[in-house]
Amino acid sequence: MEKIASFLSSLLAAGGGDSGGPAATVTSVFVYPIKSCRGISVPQAPITATGFKWDRQWMVVNSEGRGRTQRVEPKLALIQVELPPEAFAEDWQPTPDDHMVIRAPGMEPLKIPLASECATIYDVSVWEWSGSAYDEGPEAAEWFSTFFGNPTRLVRFKEESETRLTDPDYARGYKTMFSDGFPFLITSQGSLDALNEILKEPIPINRFRPNILVEGCHPYAEDLWKTIRINKLTFQGVKLCSRCKITSEGWS
Fold it and tell me: MOSC domain spans which residues (predicted)?
């Protein structure tokens, strides 16, 4: 795993760069180990070449190997994921005793070893990308198939041999795992508050699934940011998120 920076703390000053408004502050960092399942709020997260460590490293696929998302399978939003707290420490490596724990209503907890050899399956796909991935095995397949009521498997991105590049029209030379398009997604509390003012029922930030939440800037200011500096790190804004354009922006 390529390390390009150390920690991103939850209370670091952020620079809005081109917006001309007040500087924002990072208030939350979120990691989503399984694509489209619930995220984990963490105080810090190591950064890798594909985004935060563990982010969208796993994906639920159907019988044809096609990735499932909440767009077509909303029950994914009910699945909770837990990782050992120490998994977000820099340079931490799992042992055979370390697991990812998966929970869902009406299901017994499922433990996925973080340090075990897995078989490779081919013809796994998400959006425009296809390739091979590690299969987390029959126990995981049975658990997810029972929960969804149809054949389903859990796969893990195969970093050793696979590369999934970001859209070169926006961020040439960057890569990600199973996220929709880019390594990071950022939004602001101000944007969420402004949106909730016009909704009949307020919605929480997890509906937008950001990696980084900031506050202290004007609503939608992040839509205009070209650069953002967090501690000694610099991120480049590349495009608005196609899923939630009015409140979030993708970052490379």
Answer: 152-252
